[in-house]
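Revision sheet: structure tokens.
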Amino acid sequence: MIKLAIVGRPNVGKSTLFNRLAGKKLAIVDDTPGVTRDRREAAGRLGDLDFTLIDTAGFENIKDASLESRMREQTEIAIREADVILFLVDARAGVLPLDEAFAALLRRAHKPVVLIANKAEGRQGSAGANEAFALGLGTPIPLSAEHGEGFSDLFAAIAVHAAVPGEEEDEAAKPKRPIHIAIVGRPNAGKSTLVNALIGEDRLLVGPEAGITRDSISIDWSWNDKKYRLIDTAGMRKKAKVQAKLERLSVGETLHAIRFADVCVLVMDARDAFEKQDLTIADLVIREGRSLIFVLAKWDQIEDSRAHFEEMKLVARESLPQARGRRW
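Predicted:
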């Protein structure tokens, strides 16, 4: 099965196309540029073609210590992992200097590129679609990811690089469903750092900034010959503080991850664990009937670790009486 990376500058419709090809609303879509930060994967299908999709952050031509630079690194990793690149430009805005810089990067990658002029519905998009010829990446495909237009041409372009379509997978050869583990907690508790430590690579963006993770990111992981799916989620603040639309969407993604998980790992900063919001999240997981594991992150910043651990166990027992009978 081939792997397709959806790339482009911010706000050209990458996540909209990702959701359309995945057949469900997996990635958060909003008019605000830079909503997607981590790369995320999902199974996709178009006609009788099956493939793996990678949604990426909007490309910024920056190389420094900033969050935008780390997002660019995630996009470059996706390009290296992919078999085919779906490069989106905004047909209504036309080709911008950042598109040209990205096109130069893709030419150096020596990977098959399908050039897509998205938002091409109506007369406004035709001029911008024609401009895309200048990028030197072949004939652009006029498309509207939002309205589902132009997908027959996209199918033909992908099929050239795909394996033989229509092959049925042997039922006995299908892998068993992995155990789904949702990593939850307040913002900046160390959730993404924990996932990176488990899988042994810098797969997710981390940093001192709170709220880096917005989408729920699923990562397949194997341990002792067992299959797991780790779902890194956005931090959940107190409901009264959640006002911005993007944050409400992120919280909705987290709640969905909890409901469909087998196990939830509640990550807390060891210095202020079991605060009211931690207890609210724990209660939600328990009421959903999910297994719950407490993780005290940033443990290296605790001086008397033995005494602090005993204190935390006592606080957990007293604060969560509804979890009695569970192993502490």
